[in-house]
Write a structure and sequence with these properties.
With about 160 residues, this protein is an alpha/beta fold. The chain contains 4 helices and 5 strands. It is globular, with a radius of gyration of 15 Å.
Length: about 160
């Protein structure tokens, strides 16, 4: 079971980022959820190595600029794992993430598909996962309006 963070404690939000949408709107969304004191962990992920068509994400100078603009942002090592979803879940557990926020263009109708990385996270992660569906580059209407919120309750406090 995942404990709900205290309102007095800074929350930790893990953001797996595949590079397909600009990162700034995603950081803004995560920060608005976690508040000004939220610790944002940015974890670049790919479906494959860059030389096989994966995304290179951001240059070193872009990383420095992001770290300057977002002082509570920590840029984690890029994941090229064969099982990216499990690596994200393991990272969330190691870093005591209170929430995983992932934007995806996979199934914009809101369906959860286990063939999609975001769907795998939503179905398998013990930490809460917020899947944000975007269309195209996701910039025009980001964050999209929340259309569905699923909260599982087990009866505990």
């Amino acid at each position: 079971m995942h404990n709900v963070p205290s309102h007095n404690a800074a929350s930790t939000i893990l953001i797996p980022w595949d590079g397909n949408i600009p990162i700034e709107p995603l950081l803004t969304l995560a920060s608005s959820i976690g508040g000004l004191d939220a610790n944002l962990l940015l974890m670049p992920v790919t479906a494959g190595p860059v030389e096989d068509g994966g995304t290179d994400h951001a240059s070193s100078s872009d990383q420095v600029a992001l770290a300057t603009a977002w002082p509570r942002l920590e840029w984690l090592e890029r994941s090229d794992s064969a099982n990216t979803a499990m690596e994200i879940v393991a990272t969330a557990a190691r870093r005591n993430a209170d929430l995983i926020v992932m934007a995806t263009a996979c199934h914009p109708d809101g369906a959860i598909d286990s063939s999609c990385l975001a769907g795998q996270l939503a179905l398998d992660s013990p930490a809460p996962v917020m899947v944000v569906h975007v269309e195209g580059d996701g910039v025009t209407a980001f964050p999209p309006p929340i259309g569905r919120l699923v909260i599982l309750l087990d009866g505990s406090a």
